[in-house]
Design goal:
5 helices; 2 domains; Alpha-Beta Plaits; 169 residues; two-stranded antiparallel sheet; globular
């Protein structure tokens, strides 16, 4: 089973078996949202640790992913996301775990990362007065210059060595 990264409460979370469960329920023609939300949560809890206090939030995120899949199928398999179909060295971009994570407790809301990055990875949230990662897979694989621009060191990236397992050669 594959692990796919999705955003839950502004954080990227790896979910094992998400694509397989979504496809299975899609083929079954599940439509009632409340039933679907519960089914997604129960199936994915068997494959992933989901904090009990966050089950509702996770269930809504799973339902959102199901809606995206349904919308994509209605469009003939074409996802409307701007980076859909992108690859890195022949690997679907969504399978390459290279994107920033922002430590909320360190972010001072200066927006330097938002001003620097032209790929739409970040968005400013006025309510929290912080920058959030909204499109992690728009991030250019291997780039972490925005982290250098962040004086409070709130932006983190995985180590570059993680990319070695994806390199063809």
């Amino acid at each position: 089973m594959k692990v796919r990264m999705i955003i839950i409460e502004g954080r990227q979370i790896g979910i094992t078996g998400l694509d397989e469960v979504l496809e299975e329920l899609s083929r079954a023609g599940k439509e009632r949202e409340e039933s679907l939300k519960n089914d997604l949560l129960m199936r994915l809890k068997k494959l992933n640790y989901i904090p009990p206090a966050k089950e509702k939030v996770y269930a809504l995120a799973f339902l959102d992913e199901y809606r995206k899949l349904s919308e994509s199928k209605a469009l003939g398999g074409k996802n409307k996301s701007s980076k859909s179909g992108e690859t890195w060295q022949g690997i679907p971009r969504e399978e390459v775990p290279w994107y920033p994570t922002i430590r909320d407790e360190l972010c001072d809301g200066c927006k330097k990362c938002l001003e620097f990055c032209t790929f739409g990875v970040y968005q400013y949230d006025e309510k929290s007065d912080k920058v959030q990662v909204i499109k992690p897979f728009n991030c250019v694989v291997g780039c972490s210059i925005c982290a250098l621009k962040c004086k409070p060191k709130a932006i983190m990236f995985p180590p570059l060595t993680i990319l070695e397992m994806f390199r063809k050669g």
